Amino acid sequence: MNAQTQAILEQGGVDVTGALGRFMGSEALLERFLKRFLQDETLSALQAELDAGDTEAAAAAAHSLKGTSGNLSLNVLFERATAQLGQLRAGDLEGARQAMAGVTEAYTAAVEAIRAAYGEG
């Protein structure tokens, strides 16, 4: 991976060194999974469940987003999804709704970085 691609990903919240460690140093595998993340619809499901007031379903979506972001070393998104999941598990639906802006911001930054790094539209 060239320095420019790494810098773009890191600016978007990707811990490239950590991610490569998870993917046994395979840049191609990391790229494939990051591109696959672009198709993930968990964020929209999470928002829909929050809008519907379904704390249990929202917690399931937040847990999924937390796991995916953790596995890909999307650390900012992981931290925000983890905090939001904690709120949902505590029954704090309003707090989780307020946290959604930060989760969305981190998600958007990661998606934009992945697209910029790999030319995905």
Automatic annotation (TrEMBL):
Residue limits of the HPt domain?
Answer: 40-114
Which InterPro entries does the entry link to? HPT_dom_sf, Sig_transdc_His_kin_Hpt_dom
The protein's matches in Gene3D superfamilies, at most eight in alphabetical order, are given as: HPT domain
Q: Which Pfam families does UniProt cross-reference here? A: Hpt
Q: Could you identify this protein by its name? A: Hpt domain-containing protein
Q: Which organism is it from?
A: Allofournierella massiliensis
